[in-house]
């Protein structure tokens, strides 16, 4: 495969993975009550609402003017992202979640394959565009995992699996292969 073809595939893959994380987080939040979203499991832990607020701040900072400014914007107030939000609703959390991805998808759609050879800066540290995208994807995966786990704990027996339900792997695999 030619380099530009690999670069194009990488950008398409990054978009696809971010969309998967967006949908997974949204589906987890959708199963929660407003109370579930603001519950802390222990003193000092983060609620789902706080995690989503942090993700929003991080993603907006990282992906706004991605190629031209430091990914840690001087206007970002990271510490405030971790302040409790006791009266937040599911609609607000879902709005924050959607806002987390606007700049990501706009930026990824605008990148040209030759942009992948460029460098960007995050917190004063220079890194390749590819590394910055990987960094953001792994950060997103980390927090989506937290959101899903907290939502699953909150819903208990009423949780609807967001992947292959426990005990149904063989049945799922058979369905992929025409029942064989």
What is the structural class? mainly alpha
Q: Which fold name fills CATH's third level, the topology?
A: Four Helix Bundle (Hemerythrin (Met), subunit A)
Q: What is the string of helix and strand elements?
A: HHHHHEEHH
Strand order of the largest sheet: 1-2
Nearest-integer average pLDDT: 93
What percent of residues are in strands? Answer: under 5%
Q: How many helical elements?
A: 7
Which spans of ≥5 residues are poorly predicted at pLDDT below 50?
A: none
Which CATH top level class fits? Answer: Mainly Alpha
The Rg value, from CA coordinates, equals 18 Å
Going by CATH, what is the homologous superfamily?
dinb family like domain
Shape: flat
Largest sheet report: 2 strands, antiparallel
Write a structural description.
The structure is a single chain. The protein has 180 residues and is mostly helical. 61% of the residues lie in helices and 4% in strands. It contains seven helices and two strands. It has helices at 3-30, 34-38, 48-63, 78-81, 90-110, 129-155, 169-176; strands spanning 119-122, 125-128. Strands 1-2 form a two-stranded antiparallel ribbon. α1 runs antiparallel to α5 (90-110) and α1 (3-30) runs parallel beside α6 (129-155). It is flat. The mean pLDDT is 93.
């Amino acid at each position: 495969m030619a380099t530009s073809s690999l670069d194009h595939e990488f950008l398409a893959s990054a978009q696809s993975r971010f969309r998967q994380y967006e949908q997974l987080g949204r589906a987890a939040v959708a199963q929660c009550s407003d109370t579930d979203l603001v519950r802390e499991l222990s003193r000092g832990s983060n609620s789902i609402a706080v995690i989503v607020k942090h993700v929003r701040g991080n993603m907006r900072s990282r992906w706004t003017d991605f190629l031209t400014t430091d990914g840690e914007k001087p206007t970002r107030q990271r510490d405030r992202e971790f302040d409790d939000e006791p009266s937040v609703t599911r609609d607000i959390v879902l709005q924050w979640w959607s806002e987390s991805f606007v700049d990501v998808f706009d930026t990824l759609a605008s990148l040209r394959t030759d942009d992948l050879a460029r460098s960007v800066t995050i917190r004063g540290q220079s890194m390749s565009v590819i590394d910055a995208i990987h960094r953001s994807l792994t950060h997103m995966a980390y927090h989506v995992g937290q959101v899903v786990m907290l939502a699953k704990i909150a819903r208990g027996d009423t949780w609807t699996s967001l992947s292959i339900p426990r005990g149904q792997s063989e049945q799922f695999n058979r369905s992929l292969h025409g029942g064989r």
